[in-house]
Amino acid sequence: MVMDVKKNFHQTHSKVAVITGANAGIGFTLAERLLKANHKIRLCLACRNYDKGQAAAKALKESSPDVDIWVVLLDTSSVESVYAASKAIKERYDHIDYLYLNAGMMKVTGVDWHYFWKGLFSSRVFFMFTTGEGLLKQEDNVTNDGLQNVFQTNVFGHYVLIKELEDVLGNLSGKPDGTSQLIWTSSSASLEHKFDIEDFQHKKGNDPYSSSKFAMDVISVGLNSRMNKFNIFSHAVCPGLVMTNLTYGILPQWFWTLSLPLLWLLRFFVPSMTSTTDNGSEALLWLSQQNPSALDPQSKFLSEVSVLNKPFVATKQMNIDPDKAERLMQELDRLDLSLRARYKK
Ligand SMILES: NC(=O)C1=CN([C@@H]2O[C@H](COP(=O)(O)OP(=O)(O)OC[C@H]3O[C@@H](n4cnc5c(N)ncnc54)[C@H](OP(=O)(O)O)[C@@H]3O)[C@@H](O)[C@H]2O)C=CC1
Ligand SMILES: CC(C)CCC[C@@H](C)[C@H]1CC[C@H]2C3=C(CC[C@]12C)[C@@]1(C)CCC(=O)C[C@@H]1CC3
């Protein structure tokens, strides 16, 4: 009997990918590339703006008219939106193969050019271009749920989404050989010293973005400890520096366009200068083609690019303490419970 179910699953199952923040930038290009690699894949574009989501679906259907693309409204900065989106997703799919936790934001109010020029002629130049550390003046605000916006948008909204979708992930979906990959769009700006578990929302610091990206890496490791036994695997990716609405929020598009030759030159020393969403999405696509159980749960996968503009995937060891990861997840579980008590009475 079990054999029959397994056989049936292989024969009838088209892969399902859910991508948050899929209407633009890296998420949108990833959707295009997943479709190119497997035209039978079923795509769910989880977007906070329904019109933008529909426009993205329309653009994707232009090159592949027969594909199964569906838009769901999801704002990761609101737990009620996450609950509603998860319910709709579970009504449509009985198993998710790839859950891309990609939506993200940072609010930059200025660039510290003084620090930039000083850094340019110092030994920290490579680190500065890779991580952007110390260069960006950021701000954050509080969401309607009472949480720090960058933390909730980038991290917590996705954590709640995973919890809500648990019963369509891995073998918890009832498919004996069902496997799921959780793929986080992290960043080279993920810096351990910017994260404090006592202040995991980063209420007090001045680099909420780096803190949120490090929290992601920690959670990814923690999820592997908790969920690998259910065939659920989690990995974090760094797309490099990519020209998208996020970078156009830091400096105007014309500036980046003028800087492109410089960014290309920098590739001799800094392979994370991926620049295009095609290059930046390389590791995200690559992960979907791997056997996740063979990947090291402590590895981070980096989209990088050669001087000849050829993208490739590099790996980096994270060395995150699993106990620390479990502690952070327990904090998030507590927060999750308190919000559920508020909204799901
Ligand atoms: N660009 C870069 O250099 C790098 C980017 N990253 C990460 O890549 C990911 C994608 O960003 P990128 O493509 O660059 O930037 P974009 O701004 O182009 O894309 C971000 C996506 O996230 C969505 N989004 C933002 N806030 C929310 C929210 N509250 N709920 C749901 N969706 C939301 C945006 O929706 P909308 O269009 O409605 O704003 C958009 O679809 C982010 O996590 C970012 O941190 C990591 C390293 C480098
Ligand atoms: C002449 C220009 C190339 C100078 C640009 C200086 C800085 C604005 C940038 C240098 C490194 C960049 C960087 C990011 C933003 C812009 C820089 C600070 C990110 C923080 C963007 C978001 C990420 O996730 C990681 C990026 C690391 C590098």
Order of helices and strands: HEHEHEHEEHHEHEHEHHHHEEH
Output the radius of gyration: 20 Å
Q: Ions, cofactors, ligands: which are bound?
A: NADPH dihydro-nicotinamide-adenine-dinucleotide phosphate, the ligand CC(C)CCC[C@@H](C)[C@H]1CC[C@H]2C3=C(CC[C@]12C)[C@@]1(C)CCC(=O)C[C@@H]1CC3
> Would you tell me the overall average pLDDT?
95
> Which strand order do you get reading across the main beta sheet?
3-2-1-4-7-8-9-10
Number of strands: 10
What gap, in angstroms, lies between the N and C termini?
40 Å
Give the biggest sheet. Answer: 8 strands, mixed
Which overall shape is indicated by the principal axes computed on the Cα atoms?
globular
Helix content: 40-55%
Structural class of the helix and strand makeup? alpha/beta
Low-confidence stretches: 1-11
Instruction: Count up the helices.
Output: 13
The portion of residues forming beta strands comes to 15-25%
Family: Belongs to the short-chain dehydrogenases/reductases (SDR) family. ERG27 subfamily.
Organism: Lymnaea stagnalis (Great pond snail)
GO cellular component, one term: endoplasmic reticulum membrane
InterPro entries: 3KSR/17beta-HSD, NAD(P)-bd_dom_sf, SDR_fam
SSE topology sketch:
Blueprint lengths: L1 H11 L3 E5 L4 H13 L4 E6 L2 H14 L4 E6 L5 H14 L5 E4 L5 E5 L1 H8 L4 H7 L4 E4 L9 H17 L14 E6 L22 H20 L4 E7 L6 H4 L4 H14 L10 H4 L1 H7 L10 E7 L5 E7 L4 H22 L2
Parallel strand pairs: 1-2, 1-4, 2-3, 4-7, 7-8, 8-9
Antiparallel strand pairs: 5-6, 9-10
Helix pairs in contact: 4-7, 7-8, 8-13
Bound molecules: NADPH dihydro-nicotinamide-adenine-dinucleotide phosphate and ligand LHIR3OJJ.
Ligand LHIR3OJJ binds next to α6 and α10.
Organism: Lymnaea stagnalis (Great pond snail)
GO molecular function: 3-beta-hydroxysteroid 3-dehydrogenase (NADP+) activity; 5-alpha-androstane-3-beta,17-beta-diol dehydrogenase (NADP+) activity; estradiol 17-beta-dehydrogenase [NAD(P)+] activity
Main location: endoplasmic reticulum
